[in-house]
Amino acid sequence: MALRIVTDSASDTPKWVIEEYGLHVIPTPVVIDGTDYFDGKTIFPEEFYDILRSGKDIKTYHINSQMFYDNFLPYAQNNDEVIYICFSTGIAGTFNAANIAKTELLEEYPEFDLTIIDSKCASLGFGLAAYYALKMQRNGAGKEEIIEGIIWHCRHMEQIFTVKTLEYLLKGGRLSKTSAIAGSILDIKPILEVNDSGALVALDKVRGRNKSLKRLIDIVGERGKDLSGQTIGIAHGDDAETMEAVKEVLKNTYGCNDFLENYVGCAIGAHTGPGIIGIVFLNEESPYKDYLR
């Protein structure tokens, strides 16, 4: 019997974290030209963005209840306790599917202790929350305190993004054709955020790539607390060069020195396209800092 922390691949948790902490990451399905692949298992961001640029037909769907059942079953059989940190209900139906699987498992294993947390986060937003939970567990926090920590960190997680092209927001239905055409002509770059309800919404819009990146960095300063003392998450859509440039500005401007970085994976990248840059950070100093060393 053990306490296991689980998340899914939409969290964009870095590979080194997965390996170092033994994190179980459930892969999100990606359909490419009618064939199912699984993010982080049979398809990886390093190859995915080239496929995306090639113009192949790409769709995603959320992890269904049978997939959750299959992933949770070994823990139920082993009488393990599980905390699953879930992709925001404001963006995907993952939370409901996980709860359907939980109901089915409890019929067979009534003692199975499974806590499902709606992170109300996307991408590295809940990847960072998972990382904090793993550090809390390693440093001796108990189950209930870890759950409280996850909820607190998710509630105080700022998640801001900008995209390089409007094409994929248009394809995904998050932008009208008229807005996409006008935006492309005027070189408009939207600033997006995952709001308190866990939905992806437009926060601002500026003209030009450099101004959009500067606006992201300004928002970090406006909203962040204890920036030099926290881990800053930064994710990119196959644009590591821009990510590194943004990191340098964060270091020089706010004294940020600890980063958790990764690609934006297939599950989200399919809808945002190459060139997305996202920054995630806390808007309050964490009360769990003693566990996060």
Q: What distinguishing features does this structure have?
A:
293 residues; 6-stranded mixed beta sheet; single chain; 4-stranded parallel beta sheet; alpha/beta; 11 helices
Any chance you could write out the topology, listing elements then pairs?
Layout lengths: L2 E6 L6 H7 L2 E3 L2 E4 L2 E4 L6 H9 L4 E3 L4 H13 L3 E6 L7 H15 L4 E6 L5 H15 L4 H13 L1 E6 L4 H5 L5 H10 L1 E7 L5 E8 L1 H15 L7 E6 L3 H15 L3 E6 L2 H7 L4 E6 L11
Parallel strand pairs: 1-2, 1-6, 6-7, 11-12
Antiparallel strand pairs: 3-4, 3-5, 8-9, 8-13, 9-10, 11-13
Helix pairs in contact: 3-4, 5-6
Secondary-structure element sequence?
EHEEEHEHEHEHHEHHEEHEHEHE
Query: What's the count of strands?
Result: 13
The portion of residues forming beta strands comes to 15-25%
Please summarize the sheet with the most strands: 6 strands, mixed
Shape: globular
First-to-last CA distance: 26 Å
**Helical percentage:** 40-55%
| Oligomeric assembly | single chain
Which residues sit in consecutive blocks of at least 5 with pLDDT less than 50? none
What structural class do helix, strand and pairing data support?
alpha/beta
Task: Supply Rg.
Answer: 19 Å
- Mean of residue pLDDT? 92
Strand order of the largest sheet: 10-9-8-13-11-12
**Distinct helical segment count:** 11
